[in-house]
Every structure is written in structure tokens, then in C-alpha cells.
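Service request form, structural biology core

Requester: graduate student, group of Dr. S.
Request type: structure prediction, single chain
Budget code: on file
Notes: please return the result as C-alpha cells.

Sequence provided:
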Amino acid sequence: MKVLVIDSNPKQEEISHSKWAAEQYIKALKEAGHYVEIWPIYQMNIPVIDETTMNAMSKTSQGIDLSEEEYEKLELREMILSRFINFDHYVIVSPLWNFGIPPQLKALIDNIAVAGKTFKYTEKGPVGLMEGTFVHIQASGGIYSDMPEMEFGHRYIKHIFRFLGLEEKLSLLIEGTNLGDFERSIYQETLDDWVRQSVKEVM
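Core staff response, request fulfilled:
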């Protein structure tokens, strides 16, 4: 099985709890014989939807020649999408920032959620075109299970990836990391159980 890990935290593992958990999941997946590729998206050139991108899309639909900058933007978007769709299992690793996902992760999603490529419109509504599974590993400073109306990280991730046709497996939401009593050593048993169960889920 081909696994893509989307690392959307610019912090190092030493201070990122989501990365810390993801590293142990990655190790277990590799030990089970799966191929794992990691995209450290804060070190990658992920184009955002800006005026240049919008103009390029409009020109393409009208058959108008693109400028060099517009062509390069669309080529990069296409390259990211073509690589993205070639995996079987996706691991989204992210913090919860200001109730939502990091901007670089949103930029990546804007490059892969493309009508006609990863989903299509039908008379009965949109239908996802992708096949495979995903898990979301998210760490948050507060405990948002107590106030779900303010949590737009995992809620968004699960809906957008399901929208693309992927099946969510057992995601991991690490909460309360900034409350003063969170210790990795105490959480380790919970993480070990999740890793074992999740590796079995994606087999």
C-alpha cells in the first residue's frame, strides 16, 4: 500500500505533538511493509489561489494563451494533483490553529479539490472520484470535544476528504496540550493502542 503523509506543521517533532504521534504511526506502517512518502508542505512550493491563478483558469476555459507566470502556476498545480492521486492511504498531520487548519494545508487542498479530477458534479449532487482511506492526526491546545461548535480543523478535514471519495479510518485527536498537565509519557499508552488499531484498519 502506498501511503502519503501530509505534514502541515512547520514545528519540529520535539515541540509538535501531532508530528510526534505521526512518527510512531509512520514507523508502524513501514514495519508492516507499506511504502510511505512524506510531504513537508511548509517546505514545498504550494501555490495559492490568487489573481494569477484565477486569470489562468479563466483563460484556459476560453482557449486564451497564458502568460509564462500563469502557465507555471497551472503546471505546478497539475503536478501536485497528479502526484497526490497516486496513493492508497493519506495521513493528514496538523495542529489546530485559531479553531482551524494551517494555511499551507488549505492551500494544498485547494490544489487537489478539482472538479472533473477528484470529484464531479451530477444531477444528484457532487460525487467523489478518489478511492482509498485517510486518517487525521491533530493536536490542539484546548479540549474541543467539550465545545465542538468551535472546532473547524478535524470537522473540515473529514468533510473535504470524504467529499473527494476517501473513507475515514480511525483519526487521532490529541487534546489539551497547552493546559499544563499533558505529558507524552502518560499519553503514550493511548497512542500505542491507536497506532496498533489504525495499522490493522488500513491493511
